[in-house]
Design a protein that fits this description.
alpha+beta; nine-stranded mixed beta sheet; five-stranded mixed beta barrel; globular
Length: 532
């Protein structure tokens, strides 16, 4: 009897839960329908207002310019620096001319308040009927949130102490035909924010800070490299051949030449051609395209900085990496100590470890104890690390690094001396040809950049290219990958010793703006189109 009662109670609970869930679903559907109806009505009203303005000969879209004298935040700062007049005295404030978007409207009768937002921030407008005139005030009352207006007036402080503009003239410069998200719900859906970044920037002012910082980061990088004697150059985005690198390119077709072309997957080979030509220090801030996966750290198109310096090696580039990143943190964030996703990072302190040292430190595996490739594979098996069949010692070392080390590299760390098997463009170490003069640097368990003492032996380079192409053809029989013969020819004219570096700008911006996803630092990230 008790069991039957318990079962009946459970059944009743389940039915109640189902009923509540269905009711919630119906309520949400009703709310969405109501919201859509309100939105549709707002759009209709706005279009009617536009039609009325056009019929009256006041089409805002015919206005071509407006005399802006300053920005909102600058006007506020300048006025705040003025001494306040003695109590009881009213001194006319400076006259300003501003333009921007109406973000709020409030007030009734003969006086209205509004917030105007321009590229610098917001400022309050004080609009009085007896100052702007009856006709202008009537027009102002019909303005909608989101409309773009120009105002001329005097700066003053309200009784509450807020710095504002006492409007003398107000002009509608552009009509917003779609309403902005309301101030309570805002624009929070992350997918919509990425797809409609223009709305995101309007209603979420903090987003602008990220992109202002991105611009500042690029500016400081350029300034640093220029002062070091580097020359910024541009190299082709469309290339005539698919090189044998592992990255998958985007393919397009040139109609006039009737040939397939490839969007570049790197800027390296053209930049090193320039070093051959006598440009000893070059760099490029370049857009790169890779037809590969997408996640919080990868976008099909992204920005890199690649630089090449003649007559230095990877140790010289290590010094540059540490100095430049320390400088960027100080200039952009105000301190070498930053916080990323809750973890404090000290950009002023760097550790350097060889890959052999790092693998031994974090996994216990000792490369020097491996007498053969078979011994290396046995060590990996003991550590439960998967490695390819027939893996060499160098390949096993790299696999153990991926499995045990990278996730531990939270503070800025340079890992150097990479196995030759995974470094087709790096120069071998003279004292140990199994390794190359290559390093990568890691912050917050992410690879941030890659650098070499660049290979300048054209015979060795051809052999590595041919091995690279053969490996790609074995993996993808239909690939059109080939050796870049022109690059090898350039090397045969004589390439000086070179230190080279490539790093992703987007990941750097993520770090210095505390952004969790690469889409947060791209104004227009790649998105799958919505179904119409």
């Amino acid at each position: 009897m008790e069991v039957d009662l318990e079962q009946r109670i459970e059944n009743a609970k389940e039915k109640l839960g189902d009923a509540v869930e269905k009711a919630a679903g119906r309520a949400e559907e009703a709310a969405q329908q109501l919201s859509q109806e309100v939105y549709t009505e707002q759009v209709r009203v706005r279009r009617e207002k536009l039609s009325a303005l056009q019929a009256e000969g006041h089409d805002p879209f015919t206005i071509t310019k407006y005399p802006v004298s300053t920005l909102a935040m600058r006007a506020k700062a300048d006025f705040a620096a003025h001494p306040e007049p003695p109590e009881g005295e009213e001194v006319p404030g400076p006259k300003v001319s501003l333009a921007g978007r109406l973000m709020t409207k409030r007030g009734m009768g003969k006086v209205g308040f509004a917030d105007l937002q321009d590229g610098s921030g917001r400022i309050q407008l004080y609009v009085r009927k007896d100052i702007v005139g009856e006709e202008s005030y009537a027009a102002y009352k019909k303005f909608d949130i989101g409309d773009i207006v120009g105002v001329t007036g005097e700066m003053f402080r309200t009784k509450m102490g807020e710095i504002s503009v006492r409007v003398q003239e107000i002009t509608l410069l552009s009509k917003a035909l779609l309403p902005l998200p309301d101030k309570w719900s805002g624009l929070r859906d992350i997918d919509t924010r990425y797809r409609q970044r223009y709305v995101d920037l309007i209603v979420n002012p903090g987003v602008k800070i990220t992109f202002y910082k991105r611009s500042r980061i690029l500016s400081e990088i350029r300034k640093y490299l220029d002062e070091k004697g580097f020359l910024e150059v541009d190299t082709p985005v469309l290339t005539p051949c698919e090189i044998g690198a592992a990255a998958r390119p985007f393919i397009t077709h040139h109609n006039t030449l009737d040939m397939d072309m490839y969007l570049r997957i790197e800027t390296e080979l053209y930049l090193k051609r320039l070093v051959v030509g006598g440009m000893d220090r070059v760099y490029e801030v370049g857009r790169i395209f890779r037809n590969e996966g997408m996640d919080t750290k990868h976008n099909p198109e992204f920005t890199t900085v690649e630089l090449y310096q003649a007559y230095t090696d990877y140790k010289g580039i290590m010094d540059l990496v540490e100095e430049m990143n320390t400088m960027l943190a100080q200039k952009v964030c105000g301190s070498t100590k930053i916080t990323y996703q809750g973890t404090e990072i000290d950009m002023g302190r760097w550790e350097r470890l060889t890959m052999v040292e790092a693998v031994k430190k974090y996994s216990g595996a000792d490369y020097s104890a491996w007498e053969s490739d078979e011994a290396a594979r046995a060590c990996a098996k003991e550590l439960h690390a998967e490695v390819p069949a027939g893996a060499t010692k160098g390949t096993v070392l790299a696999e153990l690094f991926d499995a045990f080390v990278e996730e531990k590299l939270i503070q800025p760390t340079i890992i150097y001396d990479y196995p030759v098997e995974i470094s087709p463009l790096a120069k071998r170490k003279p004292e140990d040809p199994a390794f190359t003069e290559r390093f990568e640097y890691f912050i917050c368990a992410r690879e941030m950049g890659n650098a070499f003492s660049e290979l300048n032996d054209p015979i060795d380079q051809r052999q590595r290219f041919e091995s690279q192409v053969a490996a790609k053809r074995a993996q993808e029989p239909n690939t059109k990958a080939e050796v870049d013969e022109d690059y090898v020819t350039a090397m045969e004219y004589g390439m000086p010793p070179i230190g080279g570096l490539g790093f992703g700008v987007d990941r750097l911006v993520m770090l210095l703006t505390d952004s969790a996803s690469i889409r947060d630092v791209l104004l227009f990230p790649t998105m799958k189109p919505l179904e119409k």
